[in-house]
Fold this protein.
Amino acid sequence: MGWRYALIQESTMKAIAIASIFIITATGASALDFEGAPGAAVRVVTDASTGLEAVYVLPSTQGVTMGYDAKGDGTVRWYRFSNMGGAYAEEINCTRSGNRITAQAQNGDMGYIIEDSGTRTCYWVTDYSAHEFRAESLGFSAEQTCSQAELTFTGEGGEIAYFTINGRRMVLSRDLELEYSTLVFDEDAFVYNQQTVTTTLASAGSSIYTDAPLCDTGFTLSGDRFLRAWNRSVSVESGTYTAIAVEAQSRATQETRDNDNEIKDSADGLGGSAPCDITFEAIVTDAAVFREWQISRSPEFDINDNTFSELTFDYTFRENGTRYVRFVANNADGTCEYTGPVYEINIGESQLDIPNAFSPQGSPGVNDEWKVSYKSLVSYECHIFNRWGKELFASTDPAQGWDGKQGGKYVPAGVYFYVIKAMGADGRRYEKAGDINIINYRQEAAGVPGDSAQ
C-alpha cells in the first residue's frame, strides 16, 4: 500500500526517526529541472540544517513537469510533503525513461523527496504565482521618528515561506530594493556628501522601516529578486520625504607653538600653556536649523560661559583651569537633536623662571641667548638696561630672547639689569627685577673697544 501507509502503521517514535533521516541529503545530488513553466526556475541554495538540497521558485507550477537524472539503474521513488515535514510524505507517480525520471509538479508550494537507490534527496518547490510581488503605492506615516523613516506600502510583498524536512518554517528573501538618498560623511574632506543608498528587504508589509534619511528625498521600492530574474521587475515611487533627523560632526584643532623656552605639559590633549588658541569646526546635515557651540566650566554644561552660533570659530583660552566645549544641533521643531563629543581643555598654572647669566659668544647654541622659562603667561613686558640706565632690549613676547647685542653689536661683558612685569593665566602677577651677567666675553671678537657699545 505504499510508503505512506507503512509510516502510519509505525509508532510515533519510528516516524520521528524516519523524519530525522531526511536531514541527511546526498552530496552531489542531481539538480531538478522543469518543463512547461512560463519562466526559468530560480534555484536558492539553503542551509544544510534545513535538510533540503535547494529551493526552486517557479513563476507557476501549473502544468509543469519536474525532471531528475537518476544515478544508476536502481529503484527511484518520488514523494511529496507539505508544511508538516517529511515524516508525513506521500509517494507520487513518476515515470522513468533510461536514467531520466519525471513527475508532475503539484499545484502550489510543495516539498519533494527523491529516493534514488536508497539515498534520499529533498527539495522544496515554490509556486510564485501565489506570492507575486505587486506594488501599488508608497507613502509616509504621519508619525516619523529621528532614527527611522516609516513608509506605508500598498500592494503584495509579504513573506514567502518554505518548510524544512522537519516541518520548520523558513522564509525566502525577496531581496526587494528600497532606494533613496541620504548624506554620508567624508572624514578626510570633513564634508557631508549626498549619496544614493539601497536597502535590501526580505519582504514588504504595510509598513516599511529604514534608517531616517539625512536629506529630503524620494523613495523607490522595486523587485523582487524573482521578477528581476524573469525580467519582470516592478517598482513604485513615493513623494518627497522631508528630513527631520539631525547629525553633525565636529573637531577641535589647537595651534601649536615651538617655543623652546615655553614649559610644555606632558599630558596629551587640548590645552597646556596659555594663551591657547583652538579652532572649533562643525558640519551639519540638512535638517539642523539650530546650531550652537557651548563653552562651560561644568562638564554637565549647567551654565555656559560662552556660546557661538557659527559653525567654525577661533577661541583663545587665557584662564587657568578646565573648560568644556561641545557642539549641539536641533531640527526646526526641536524633536530631533544632536549632541557632539565634549572637548576638555586644561590650562596649567603660570610659571616664570629667569636666568641670571649667559655667554653670547660662547659655544653656538649653548646658553648664548638670554631667555626666560615660562608657562601660561597671558601678558608680558621685559626691559633690559645697562648700568647707566640705558635700555638695550625690550619685548612683549616671552618666547623672544636677548642675544647680547645692542645696535647689531655685542655689548661688553659685565652686569646688566632686567625689569619684568607679567600676568599668569591663573591671575598671578609677576613683577621681577634683577641682574644679568654676561660672561666669557671676548672683546676683540665684539669689534668694539671697552664699554663704548653701552
Observations:
- Residues 1-28, 443-454 have pLDDT under 50 and may be disordered.
- The longest strand covers residues 176-186.
